[in-house]
Structure formats: structure tokens, C-alpha cells
TrEMBL record:
ATP-binding is among the record's keywords: no
TM stretches of this protein: 20-47
Domain called Late embryogenesis abundant protein LEA-2 subgroup: residue spans: 79-180
Gene3D superfamilies the UniProt entry points to: 2.60.40.1820
The protein's name in its UniProt record: Late embryogenesis abundant protein LEA-2 subgroup domain-containing protein
Keyword Metal-binding in record: no
Keyword terms of this UniProt record: Membrane, Transmembrane, Transmembrane helix
Native species: Cuscuta campestris
Pfam families: LEA_2
Length: 196
């Protein structure tokens, strides 16, 4: 049946709606990216890896002498290492170095190991130096003869290297250093330590 008024059939309009939908998707994607980045940043600051804390407990000498321009000593250094992180700290490649008059005279490697989150572990390292030749400027006598009291100054440097996991996924390298100046006197080998 013909339309007595001669009206034309309506047509659906296209064009402007597609651009609006694309803009909405881009806006939602940018917002989602910002939310994810903010969450990752917040987690990083909350779970940010921290270096282990080193505290030297004691330094002991069982033998110490300088004779004929050579150094002989047996030293034990005891330390406590605390893990302030929220996950396990795995240490590797750690060392304690002994220096005299600014010259390294010995080094000992610390075995690899792990410290649980929030825990403290005690470690000890023994260093033996036998007949180490000293430079002429430092070949003073240091013996345990009766009536003699002489002071000797050495330095120990502990370097603790390891890694900490973040959110059980990422691994972050951390490092701590502790330098100690050690004064000791003959003949009783009494020790005074200052660390920084």
C-alpha cells in the first residue's frame, strides 16, 4: 500500500559514534596502565630491597708478631648479619680483607648461605697470615717479650654481596660494607675496635 503522504523510509545514521567509542577505549586503556604502574610503584616502595646490616661482634688474635720484616698472625672476626627485607637474602661472593699500613695482607671468602626475612645470623671467619713480607717503613718489632707493650693497628673490611627477591618474582642485588680499625697491644693481645 502506498504512503499517501509520500514520506521516505528512515535511514540509520553512521559516522560520529565510532570515533567516540575509540576515544573511550583509549581513555580506559590509559587509566588502566596508570593504575597498574601506580600499584607496581607502591609495591616497590613497600617491598624495596634493603642491604643487610653488619655488626662486628668481636675480633680475636691467637697469634700476632712481626719479626725480621715479616708479619705472622691468626685472627678470628665474628659478625652478626641481619636481613631487614620481607624475603630471603642469599649471599655469595662475600669476603673479609685484612690490611696493614694500607696494604692488603690477606683475604678470606665467606661461604654462600641464606638468611630468612627479618632474621639475624652469626658468622665467623678465620684468617691466617704466615711470613708476609712488609715494606721497610712498617717493619717495627711487635713481639710478646716480657715487659714490652707495643701497639699495632690493622684494618678489616667486610664486603657482603647477595640478592633479595621482591614479590617472589624479581631478584635485586644488594651489597653492604663494614670497615673496622683494630688496635691491639702486646703482650696480652688486648683489642680495641672501631667500625664504620
Amino acid at each position: 500500500m502506498s504512503d499517501p503522504y509520500g514520506s521516505k523510509p528512515s535511514r540509520s545514521t553512521r559516522g560520529g559514534g565510532g570515533g567516540a567509542n575509540l576515544a573511550s577505549c583509549l581513555l580506559a586503556t590509559c587509566f588502566l596502565i596508570l593504575v597498574i604502574a601506580g600499584a607496581v610503584a607502591a609495591c616497590y616502595f613497600v617491598f624495596k630491597p634493603k642491604p643487610p646490616r653488619i655488626k662486628v661482634q668481636a675480633v680475636r688474635f691467637s697469634n700476632l708478631s712481626i719479626t725480621n720484616g715479616t708479619l705472622n698472625l691468626a685472627l678470628v672476626q665474628e659478625v652478626s648479619v641481619s636481613n631487614p627485607n620481607r624475603d630471603v637474602f642469599s649471599q655469595y661472593g662475600s669476603t673479609i680483607q685484612l690490611s696493614y699500613h694500607g696494604r692488603p695482607v690477606g683475604v678470606v671468602f665467606i661461604p654462600t648461605g641464606k638468611i630468612e626475612a627479618g632474621q639475624t645470623q652469626r658468622m665467623s671467619a678465620k684468617l691466617n697470615v704466615q711470613s708476609y713480607p712488609l715494606p721497610p717503613s712498617s717493619t717495627t718489632s711487635f713481639s710478646s717479650q716480657p715487659g714490652e707493650t707495643e701497639t699495632m693497628v690493622i684494618e678489616t673490611r667486610m664486603k657482603l654481596v647477595g640478592s633479595v627477591r621482591v614479590l617472589k618474582v624479581f631478584t635485586h642485588r644488594v651489597e653492604s660494607n663494614e670497615k673496622c680499625t683494630v688496635w691491639t697491644q702486646a703482650p696480652n693481645l688486648s683489642v680495641f675496635i672501631q667500625c664504620s
